[in-house]
Amino acid sequence: MVVSIDVQVDAEAAIDMLQNGLDNLVNGITQALDQGGADLVETAQSIVPVRTGYLRSTISYEVDGLNLIFQALARYAKFVEFGHHTRGKVKHMVAPRPFMRPAFYQLLPQIENAIAAAAANAFNG
Questions:
Q1: Long-range contacts of range 89-93, CB-CB < 8 Å, 24 or more positions apart?
Q2: Which residue, among 14, 10, 4, has the nearest Cα to 123 in the 3D structure?
Q3: In the predicted model, what is the mean pLDDT of residues 32-41?
Q4: Rounded Cα–Cα distance for residues 75 and 55 (Å)
Q5: Where does 1-125 show beta strands of DSSP type E?
Q6: Is the pLDDT of residue 123 over 80?
Q7: Nearest Cα to Cα of residue 102 among 62, 42, 13, 17
Q8: Count of alpha carbons within 13 Å of 88, Cβ hemisphere only?
Q9: Across residues 92-110, what is the average pLDDT?
């Protein structure tokens, strides 16, 4: 008894299928990063201490390729986030009032799950 299985692959169709899957993957990850960035900004803006509102207004994000850039552009943002020593004759430590890190750590699992879902769905259909 002999069983023979012939497999024929339409290389062009296979390449098209792979390219479509990769395009879906990139689009899905980009959408996940964009939504994650918007959520990060909203969360950080709800946490940040507000005196004038300027620092809060400089919290933003951008998606550059497959990179999410989450930032606060006020020159003093790092001093609020990490604390600092005051200047002058009497020096004391101003306590940190983090807003970027808590937003990031709170939303990181959600962003990771969205990216994983995009990867899982990229080659379906």
A1: none
A2: 14
A3: 98
A4: 9
A5: 59-64, 67-72, 84-85, 93-94
A6: yes
A7: 42
A8: 5
A9: 95
Per-residue b or e along 72-103, where b marks 16 or more CB atoms closer than 10 Å to that residue's CB: bebeebeebbeeeeeeeeeeeeeeeebbbeeb
Q: Between the CA of residue 30 and those of 24, 62, 72, 94, 101, what are the distances in Å?
A: 10, 11, 21, 38, 22
C-alpha–C-alpha distance, residues 113 and 75, integer Å: 33
pLDDT in tens, 37-63: 999 999 999 999 999 999 999 999 999
Question: What is the residue type of 37?
Answer: G
pTM, two decimals, is 0.84
Greatest CA span in the chain, whole angstroms? 97
pLDDT at 125: 58
Q: How far is CA 29 from the centre of its chain?
A: 10
98 band by pLDDT with thresholds 50, 70 and 90: very high
Cβ within 8 Å of residue 69, ≥6 positions away: 61, 62, 63
